[in-house]
Design brief:
By secondary structure, the protein is α/β, with parallel strands linked by helices. A hairpin with a 2-residue loop joins strand 4 and strand 5. The longest helix has 21 residues. The protein is globular, with a radius of gyration of 20 Å.
Length: about 280
């Protein structure tokens, strides 16, 4: 199915030459063949949280199908790049410059289930290698789509829907702030179409530096606590206004990382060290 015909956000695509699809195992093997020796002993090659004597651990693989393409990807950047974190790696799928409606996300997920595999960045991945699958969606004007999808979702479906109302920015807000009744009072009387746009603007004004997704990754624990405090859902299991299910994904990330030598805690400590070094240099 041509997803570009179904998207709700305008955007022009660029023509690119596609590379041959390769299997993960083929890429790993070719990398080894190109390099006669592979060093893993130097400190620079070791992942954050590694301690001498630790055995090599294959990271948990998580497939995320996202309706949004920018803030969600920024938030998960450390897990997508996989350079600083060894316990968890995210394979992030969306439609660049267009995003995906819930129906499109469900259709893509169903096609992956039927095929048992998917291609991302010219690499083929097997579904049975994924530890978890999450589908990130805003409520926005898609309430009826989400209602129908959730009401017909089979019990055996592995896809975990993570829904934010009105949009993903409410999760970023909770990573920094915890007073939606006061801070976001101007959002409630607006129409469904107007809410997301206004929320983005308001949050960028009340959060110093704006709602930066990548920095919010350092505030997962605050986000989980604040989100849970304000979480409510309606009779269709859809979050009410100013509620998000992102605390479920965030708690999953914390638990998986900390199960590997407290890697999330170690990540936070390292980020603090980096910040202190930057401050010292700026004072010189």
């Amino acid at each position: 199915m041509d997803f570009s015909k179904l998207t709700y956000k305008k955007g022009e695509s660029e023509e690119t030459l596609e590379k041959p699809v390769q299997n993960e195992e083929e890429v790993e093997q070719s990398n080894v063949e190109e390099n006669e020796t592979v060093s893993v002993d130097t400190p620079s090659a070791l992942p954050l949280g590694y301690q001498k004597g630790d055995s090599f651990r294959t990271p948990s693989l998580v497939l995320i199908i996202s309706g949004g393409e920018k803030r969600e990807k920024d938030f998960l950047k450390e897990l997508i790049n996989g350079q600083k974190i060894s316990a968890l790696k995210v394979l992030f799928f969306t439609e660049e410059r267009q995003g995906l409606q819930p129906y499109q996300m469900q259709e893509k997920w169903q096609s992956i289930c039927d095929a048992g595999e998917f291609v991302l960045n010219n690499l083929s991945h097997h579904l049975d290698k994924m530890d978890e699958v999450f589908l990130l969606s805003d409520v926005d004007e898609f309430y009826e789509q989400l209602q129908k999808i959730l009401s017909s979702k089979p019990a055996a479906d592995r896809g975990n829907w993570i829904i934010s109302n009105p949009c993903f920015e409410i999760w970023l807000y909770y990573c920094y702030k915890n007073d939606p009744t006061h801070d976001l009072a101007c959002i409630e009387p607006l129409t469904v179409v107007e809410r997301s746009k206004r929320l983005k603007k308001v949050c960028n004004e009340i959060v110093k530096g704006g709602l930066h997704g990548q920095y919010a990754f350092e505030h997962l624990q605050e986000g989980v606590e604040h989100s849970r405090e304000h979480y409510r859902e309606d009779n269709d299991d859809i979050p009410v206004l100013f509620a998000t299910q992102m605390h479920r994904l965030a708690q999953f990330i914390i638990d998986r990382m900390n199960a590997n030598a407290n890697e999330y805690d170690a990540y936070l400590k390292q980020q603090q060290i980096n910040l202190e070094e930057i401050r010292k240099k700026s004072e010189v």
